Amino acid sequence: MSAMKEFGSTKDEIVDILRVVLLTSGMPPFNKGMKILYKLV
Question: pTM, whole model, 2 decimals?
Fold first, then answer.
């Protein structure tokens, strides 16, 4: 949420970052990030 407020990041930009997480860390961290994102937005 702080990235959205401080830097003006959009939901789509954060999803793009989470896709990089998917490629580097796998599905469990990606899913956790997406759950948190949908709770905040």
Answer: 0.77
